[in-house]
Amino acid sequence: MSDRERNRLLLVLFIGVLMAALDIAVTGPALPAIRAQFGMDVATASWIFGIYIVANLVASPLLAKASDRFGRRTSFLASVVLFGIGSIIVATAVDVTMLLIGRAIQGFGAGGIFPVATAVVGDVFPVEQRGRALGMIGAVFGIAFLLGPIIGGVLLLFGWQWLFWVNVPIMLLIIGLGVRLLPTGGGNAGGAFDWLGSIVLSTILILSALVLQGVGDLVKQGGSLSTAMIGMIAAVIVLLPVFVWAERRAADPVVQMALFDRRQVIVILAFAFGAGMAEAVTLYLPSLLVSAHGMNESAASFQLIPLVLAMAVASPLSGRVLDKQGAKPVVLGGVALMAAGLLVLGVMPRDMTMYYLFSVLFGFGIAVLLGASLRYMMLGETEPSQRAPAQAILTIVISVGQMIGAALMGAVAVSQVDTTAGYALAMVVTAGVMLALLVVGIWLHPRVQTAPESAPA
Asked: Which DSSP string corresponds to 364-401?
């Protein structure tokens, strides 16, 4: 494949990931209008996001595995079509049930887009160009955060439904380009489909997501674990060894257990978990600004723009450095920047100059990890037949880190009498996690990544 063909392919992947990322950014502004139309209370409205997250987690490993059995093109386009169908259902919803079904289908489709896109990069881009490609795709999330409120504000003038209708022409564009440009890849897996492993894993992910969201609500509202939550925790503990047993005996498992025998993979997943925890910081920044500086919520939200700009700039830049220097110095540098930024804000939470310094340091650091580095390293540690499932595992670990991080930081914040001091302490605690990751980084491979044999395009 020529460089020109690769760049055109990268554009297709970029548009697909951007479509899913924009949905997250525009749904927030639409929430008041959706609640008003359907008469939803706050608890019910939270499921507009909650059911999307749960479906996304469940879909990631399943659609990633589908790309091994049926090919990258088929799986990627199927994910995009599912996302589009979900968007149509949401836009035409006549009641809350129909709305949530549409959101679940959207989340399920979105779950396959990013892992399969990353696997495609591993299949068709040579090692010396993977960092650049992954960096461009990683920059999508910063771009979506910047464009989302603007696009959302304009489309809301015509009705909240248009925030979802707009996905339909984008879906059709991706299908038209993807049929011609996406490689088939994958499609080489043999053996019976792993139904048992798929069902058990899906159950574990659904229960885990419900428990973590429930714990997050308890932290905010107070209270203790319900009998139902305790039962879900017990079920997850019981099902985990069942899943491992099922995967070890399956002819074509959803998750290759041998992947976890590699120390480097475990180190990568540790960084993914830590990065997810750190990303949860962004959920509390507006509240910190409201508490420390007396801003209203709208003004506080706009103060996230410097951080997002830093992310959008750093992701493609770090990708290019990855291609030249390898992952270890880039990853450790990113973690160090995050730790420094968190300490600056934790020690001086009432100084806006320090907040802007934090935004630059933390924005660059989190973009380095989540933009390209972790996926770059995972591609280097997996064979073509494991690329997509491994990327899905990475996505799941990051998401679990986000949910645990949000609950942990919320618990730390409410532990203090002074609200600002509570948020500041949460920043310092998260900085401690980043410093611990620097120690874990000792075990990162120092070499520039060497590519395994490429899958057929």
From this structure: HHHHHIIIIIHHHHHHHHS-GGGHHHHHHHHHHHHHHH
Cα separation, 355 vs 348, in Å, equals 8
Other C-beta atoms lying within 10 Å of the C-beta of residue 251: 10
180, 204: one domain: no
**Position of tokens 């290019």?**
320
Same domain, 308 and 440: yes
Give the alpha-carbon dihedral of 19, 20, 21, 25, to 10 degrees.
90
**What average pLDDT does the structure give for the chain?**
90
Which residue type is seen at 237? I
Any idea what the Cα angle at residue 364 is, between residues 358 and 365, rounded to 5°?
Answer: 85
- Would you say 453 and 344 are in contact if contact means Cβ atoms under 8 Å apart? no
Residue 81 tokens, joined: 């079509």
Looking at this protein, which amino acid is placed at residue 7? N
Calpha distance 221→420 (Å, rounded):
18
Q: Which two tokens stand for residue 322?
A: 């990855």
Q: Based on the domain organization, do 350 and 276 belong to the same domain?
A: yes
Q: Decide: 160 and 33 in contact? Cβ < 8 Å.
A: yes
Distance in angstroms (rounded) separating the CA atoms of residues 88 and 255: 32
Amino acid of residue 446: P
Spatial distance between the Cα atoms of 440 and 210, rounded to a whole number of angstroms: 30
Q: What is the dihedral of CA 375, 379, 381, 382, to 10 degrees?
A: 130
pLDDT at 144 over 60: yes
In this predicted structure, what is the pLDDT of residue 154? Answer: 86
Give the domain extent around 225: 192-251
Concatenate the DSSP letters of all residues of 62-85 into one string: HHHHHHHHH-HHHHHHHHHHHHHH
CATH of the domain at 406: 1.20.1250.20
Number of domains in the chain: 3
Q: 408 Cβ partners below 8 Å, 6+ apart? A: 277, 280, 426, 429
Q: Using one digit for the tens of pLDDT, what is the confidence trace for 28-61?
A: 778 889 989 999 887 788 889 889 999 999 999 9
- Reported confidence tier of residue 188, pLDDT bands at 50, 70, 90: low
> Could you tell me if 196 and 284 lie in one domain?
no
Quick one: tokens of 64? 């990633």
Q: For residue range 273-314, what is the model confidence (pLDDT) as tens digits?
A: 999 999 999 888 988 999 999 988 778 888 989 999 999 999
Point out the domain boundary residue: 210, 235, 251: 251
- 401 neighbors 129 (Cβ within 8 angstroms): no
